[in-house]
Design a protein that fits this description.
Helix content is 73%, strand content 5%. A 3-stranded mixed sheet has the order 4-3-5. A two-stranded antiparallel ribbon has the order 1-2. A hairpin with a 5-residue loop joins strand 1 and strand 2. The longest helix is centred in the middle third of the chain and has 34 residues.
Length: 324
């Protein structure tokens, strides 16, 4: 597809297309069913994360630093799902594969900003668990509601500014050849590789961003669990060790669900597989964790489960009184 009739000259050398074309999956029949599946997953994500936020907001017993982080994860899950799935449905189910240049950059920013915030929130949650188990007597002194709010706010700012830089760098590129993005959204790598001038800074950002956003937090999380393991070994009784371990189970599952697909995407296999497989893997790795996270917390966290039961009993009593 040629952009010659749809470009506008910014100056003598920089050419920005009026639109990009999102290719999505190619050469696969009945792809609409895959996109319908993503829509189904998105619906469950919205319901699940809204439910988690509602329970935490209405139960004052859950107004603690740990659940401030959980609430923050639900917000970022909801945001990243909304940034990805509705545009994908509009693009491929309703055959609207052209996206304006400005809308493309906006989509790129929000998708990666919310993905970054998911990673940062899991890091904050690991820090919370590490302090709770390694320094139980000082936990309430170190981790407070105020400090947790400050930490999460700082991470939101870092996520926004960190993603803004590579998006701004896209603006210095000239797109005078193809405008077809071989992805299911305005992905950073497939977009800047369409440029016909030097995109070395974009390559550098594309290499460093995953390290700062994904690998560094993963290293930190691994370090916290090494500290937790050492602290657990010092606990005398097996029952106390098991009780402490249970407080980390849900977070460990969340970390595995989030980071394992990313390791596949950015690992060696990600550079040699067909782009259709990469698109399917990337899309599922972005939309499945937001759906699974509320389920994991509802089933694996005792405090949260008790809160749900308590609110259910309260609602049942209110309905009984009302019917009388």
């Amino acid at each position: 597809m040629s952009p010659l009739n749809t470009t506008s000259f910014i100056n003598a050398t920089i050419v920005h297309p009026a639109f990009f074309f999102i290719s999505g999956l190619s050469g696969i029949p009945h792809t609409k069913y895959f996109y319908m599946f993503l829509c189904f997953v998105y619906t469950l994500s919205v319901l699940g994360n809204t439910f988690v936020m509602f329970v935490i907001y209405t139960d004052h017993c859950l107004h603690s630093p740990k659940y401030i982080a959980v609430f923050n994860l639900a917000v970022s899950d909801l945001c990243v799902s909304t940034a990805i799935v509705p545009p994908v449905i509009d693009t491929f189910l309703f055959k609207s594969q052209l996206i304006s240049y400005e809308a493309c950059l906006s989509n790129m920013f929000f998708v990666f900003a919310f993905l970054t915030m998911q990673s940062f929130t899991l890091t904050v949650m690991s820090y919370d668990r590490c302090v709770a188990i390694c320094f139980p007597l000082r936990y309430n002194e170190i981790i407070t509601n105020k400090s947790m709010l400050v930490i999460t706010t700082i991470f939101w700012i870092i996520a926004g500014l960190g993603i803004l830089i590579p998006v701004i760098l896209i603006n210095r590129l000239s797109f005078c050849k193809s405008i077809v993005i071989n992805s299911f959204f305005c992905d950073h790598g497939p977009t800047f590789r369409l440029a016909c001038n030097d995109y070395t800074p974009n390559i550098v950002m594309g290499a460093t961003q995953p390290a700062l956003i994904f690998w560094l937090p993963l290293v930190f999380i691994t370090g916290t669990y090494i500290c937790i393991a050492r602290a657990l070994l010092k606990i005398a009784t097996a029952s106390e060790r098991l009780k402490a371990m249970k407080t980390c189970t849900s977070h460990l599952i969340l970390v595995a669900v989030y980071y394992f697909p990313i390791c596949i995407i950015y690992g060696a296999i990600g550079f040699i597989v067909h782009h259709n497989i990469r698109i399917i893997n990337a899309s599922l790795s972005m939309v499945l964790p937001p759906m699974l996270n509320p389920i994991i917390y509802s089933l694996k966290t005792e405090e949260f489960t008790e809160s749900i039961k308590k609110q259910y009993r309260r609602k049942k009593i209110h309905l009984t009184v009302f019917n009388k």
